[in-house]
């Protein structure tokens, strides 16, 4: 099994906004939906999925276990609750959303719980999110690299996370990029704009194509139908070596997501 290269993110979308986003995305041809327990939108997404008429086996649904649910007695019940909200018997991918603050729950415990969830058929694949190199090492030691489908990390033209990506690549861990457009900041970048003009594309298409060209999965979100449709077209855009070199030069370690009390010691 593998991770689809392109999907819909739902961070910060709740209630009617997330129902509309998911519904429109599915109508346009999206089949991958990324959510998380802490987003508070699993039930609303479940409503959209129930109404869409698309067979479950055609969808790829990801959710993420919140830090409070990482313990031995909590992870599986919390995942079962997520499934109930989403209106499905299983998810395709379950991630540890953030490492347990202060290592209150060891990585090995959470990973082994995810393996149990997989064995029980609650999730098809398992993985991690916001994991540094030492945390990935712990996850591999716990369950083997072959059981870690992806590490979902913040990654954009301004935060290319080369150390983590390089290590993950060497050890066979796939990368999923979130915040790929840098909260929209990268859409206004002059270098991106020039590349977009050259290819008769949008800045968003250029950035998403860049990430997918590097082998990462992307999960951009939008509430606007035209943006959802436009983002889809990034899948057919191919950048050249000159474009990639120009984007490589935008790296400035501009991390946008580093919540106090949650964020690990970044590599």
Question: Any overview of this molecule?
Answer:
The mean pLDDT is 98. α2 links the parallel β2 (32-34) and β3 (60-65). α2 packs across α3, α4 (107-119) crosses α5 and α7 (190-199) packs across α8 (203-213). With 267 residues, the chain is of the alpha/beta class. The protein has helices at 15-28, 42-52, 75-86, 107-119, 133-143, 162-170, 190-199, 203-213, 225-232, 241-248; strands spanning 8-9, 32-34, 60-65, 91-96, 123-129, 151-154, 175-178, 217-218. Pfam families: Aldo_ket_red.
Short descriptors:
alpha/beta, single chain, TIM Barrel, eight-stranded parallel sheet, 267 residues
Highest-level CATH class: Alpha Beta
Major sheet characteristics = 8 strands, parallel
Percent range for β-strand residues: 5-15%
Helix amount, in percent? 40-55%
List strands and helices in order, with pairings.
Blueprint: E1 8-9, H1 15-28, E2 32-34, H2 42-52, E3 60-65, H3 75-86, E4 91-96, H4 107-119, E5 123-129, H5 133-143, E6 151-154, H6 162-170, E7 175-178, H7 190-199, H8 203-213, E8 217-218, H9 225-232, H10 241-248
Parallel strand pairs: 1-2, 2-3, 3-4, 4-5, 5-6, 6-7, 7-8
Summarize, please.
It catalyses: hydroxyacetone + NADP(+) = methylglyoxal + NADPH + H(+). The protein is α/β, with parallel strands linked by helices and about 270 residues long.
